Structure to design on (434 residues):
């Protein structure tokens, strides 16, 4: 009787909880649908508040190899020097944190030291070209307009109207908008200070995460083991390992690959004596982090900039970039990245377009490893289903080359093309042919 009562109570309790959460979900959906603007503003505000945490965690993730390597090396060399192993470990953590922070600041400072002088020089060069361009425009006007009596007579009497229109436009639009312009400037200055504060906070969070990642990992492991069954917990741990291997291998590999491409671009431009070598090499290297479209994103504005200076240099740079990207795509990239994502080119392009459309620049970078993880689990699900039906897993078996009158064994080999006919038990002949 006692057991029966417990079961009844448990049954009604589960039903009550299900009804409660279903009603709560409906209320949330109703609120979101009829208060979309407020919800969007609230989410935007939450995102702004959490931005330093995002930045800090990402920086800590990127600096993790440097931190771990430094801590391991320092601890081994100083083990037993500070009386207790606990002190040895704390000193190693402190030195690892300092080294990671110095490396990060050095990279940021080096980046700006490379970019800013070159950018200033480029701006000065472009500004210096303006007088020559104005002289050319003036000469053209004198030759084609002032010297043309018919055109002068046609324009006569309309110039005053044009000037009056410009004056009226300035009085009616520019002057009333001066307050808005000043307000925008003040908002921009405020945003700049806010960005500086966010960067400072993100650096603090980065160091804190680096020193506390083992604690966070242990706490997460305790929570998962307490809430889920052993099998589910193992699946979650495996998922975390796959995510870490995929994202870590891809992002770190792309960063190394992009640094190499930037250096090779600078060397090639220096040998070819092309202008703006440092600035353009940095742009090419940074945009190369984006898979597939990165080289084009970096090359197009660089070609446009070089065209203003010297069209021949722009053409030489375009040819050089094509050669450089071929080397990267066929030699450097595969050696560094290997088969981190195991995605076909079509799915790489799909992931970049969807990720970039939804989440911008970050989506373009993280879309590929995210798609790779989805692909791993989808492939695993499909293969398990095929095995449960006593069907082969090799994709080559299911490809149909009959329309080309080509024997698949010539393409994939005899072992990979074992006939699927006879293995598909329970399927009709028409279904097997399909």
């Amino acid at each position: 009787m006692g057991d029966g009562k417990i079961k009844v109570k448990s049954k009604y309790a589960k039903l009550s909880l299900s009804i409660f959460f279903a009603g709560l979900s409906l209320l949330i959906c109703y609120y979101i649908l009829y208060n979309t603007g407020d919800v969007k503003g609230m989410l935007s505000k939450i995102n702004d508040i959490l931005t330093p945490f995002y930045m800090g965690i990402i920086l800590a993730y990127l600096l993790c190899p440097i931190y771990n390597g430094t801590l391991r090396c320092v601890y081994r060399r100083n083990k037993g020097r500070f009386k207790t192993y606990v002190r040895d470990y704390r000193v190693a953590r402190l030195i690892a944190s300092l080294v990671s922070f110095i490396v990060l600041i050095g990279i940021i400072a080096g980046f700006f030291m490379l970019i800013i002088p070159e950018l200033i020089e480029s701006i000065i060069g472009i500004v210096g070209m303006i007088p020559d361009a104005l002289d050319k425009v003036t000469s053209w006007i004198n030759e084609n307009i002032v010297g043309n009596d018919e055109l002068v007579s046609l324009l006569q009497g309309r110039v005053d109207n044009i000037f009056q229109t410009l004056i009226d436009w300035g009085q009616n639009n520019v002057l009333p908008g001066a307050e808005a312009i000043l307000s925008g400037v003040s908002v921009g200055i405020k945003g700049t200070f806010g960005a500086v504060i966010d960067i400072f906070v993100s650096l603090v969070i980065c160091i804190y995460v680096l020193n506390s990642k083992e604690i966070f990992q242990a706490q997460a492991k305790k929570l998962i083991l307490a809430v889920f069954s052993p099998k589910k917990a193992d699946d979650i741990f495996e998922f975390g390992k796959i995510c870490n291997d995929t994202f870590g291998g891809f992002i770190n590999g792309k960063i190394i690959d992009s640094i190499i491409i930037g250096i090779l671009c600078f060397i090639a431009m220096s040998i070819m004596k092309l202008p703006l070598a440092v600035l353009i090499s940095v742009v090419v290297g940074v945009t190369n982090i984006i898979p597939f479209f990165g080289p084009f994103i970096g090359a197009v504005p660089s070609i446009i900039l070089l065209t203003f200076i010297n069209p021949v240099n722009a053409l030489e740079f375009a040819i050089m970039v094509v050669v450089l990207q071929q080397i990267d795509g066929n030699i450097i990239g595969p050696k560094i990245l290997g088969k981190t994502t195991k995605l076909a080119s079509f799915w790489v392009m799909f992931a970049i377009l969807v990720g970039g459309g939804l989440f911008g620049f970050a989506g373009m970078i993280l879309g590929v490893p995210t798609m790779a993880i989805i692909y791993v689990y989808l492939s695993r699900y499909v293969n398990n289903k095929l095995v449960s039906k006593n069907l082969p897993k090799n994709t080559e078996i299911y490809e149909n080359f009959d329309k080309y009158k080509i024997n698949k064994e010539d393409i994939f080999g005899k072992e990979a093309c074992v006939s699927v006919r006879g293995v598909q038990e329970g399927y009709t002949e028409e279904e097997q042919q399909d």
About this structure: The radius of gyration is 32 Å. Confidence is low (pLDDT under 50) at residues 1-8, 421-434. The longest helix spans residues 85-146.
